[in-house]
């Protein structure tokens, strides 16, 4: 089982597959209640079958990634771990794919200087209901710590400074009745972005609509390839 050790006593589980030919590497950045297994169930294998690489990994506190009891699982830590993991593994032509909080962490990493060919934000302005989701069976003490520490985030980033191609995906069933589209509003603030809205899909886009997620990601990869021309 491959792990990256960001510091003694701590580890990040990951699964890394290289792309074929001129494919990109989709680097998944989990929701707080997610895991690499969410991507590896359907989405990542389909992307690999199309010739692209993937890098799925778990935050400290998730699944098989380990953390010391005294470690505070802050957003800064998650962003730093993403930066270190990408620097260590060197995925070819990385495209960051962040779900919920993961989108925020991925965007922050890009703003801090992490080089990526593209960025995908999936329900990136949605805040999970911590109390409800923390009560899920099997969450355990580590997940409770992650929810408590990493949810202390500032969602008001300078989105206008993300000067790279961005795909914004939103599940419309998760939008309040009659509310404006967060995906369209976010895309409007980005210099180079387009929005994809999925009817009948809620907050867990890759779990509820894996085929639509795959199609959107493959289309984005094709768009990036056409830009290199």
Low-confidence stretches: 127-138
Number of helices: 9
Write the CATH architecture name.
Answer: 3-Layer(aba) Sandwich
Helices and strands: which structural class? alpha/beta
Summarize the helix and strand pattern as letters: EEEHHEHEHEHHEHEHH
Number of strands: 8
Distance between the termini: 38 Å
Major sheet characteristics = 8 strands, mixed
What count of domains describes the coordinates?
1
CATH top-level class? Alpha Beta
Structural shape: globular
Strand order in space, largest sheet: 1-2-4-3-5-6-7-8
Proportion in β-strands: 15-25%
What does it look like?
The protein is α/β, with parallel strands linked by helices and 229 residues long. The protein has one domain (3-228): Alpha/Beta hydrolase fold, catalytic domain (Rossmann fold), CATH 3.40.50. The protein is 38% helix and 18% strand. Strands 1-2-4-3-5-6-7-8 form an 8-stranded mixed beta sheet, with helices on both faces. β1 and β2 (12-17) form a beta hairpin. α3 (75-89) packs across α4. The chain is globular, with a radius of gyration of 16 Å.
Brief sketch in words of this structure:
The chain has helices spanning 36-41, 43-49, 75-89, 101-111, 130-134, 140-150, 182-189, 205-208, 210-228; strands at residues 3-4, 12-17, 25-29, 53-57, 94-99, 118-122, 166-171, 193-198. By secondary structure, the chain is of the alpha/beta class. It comes from Tistlia consotensis USBA 355.
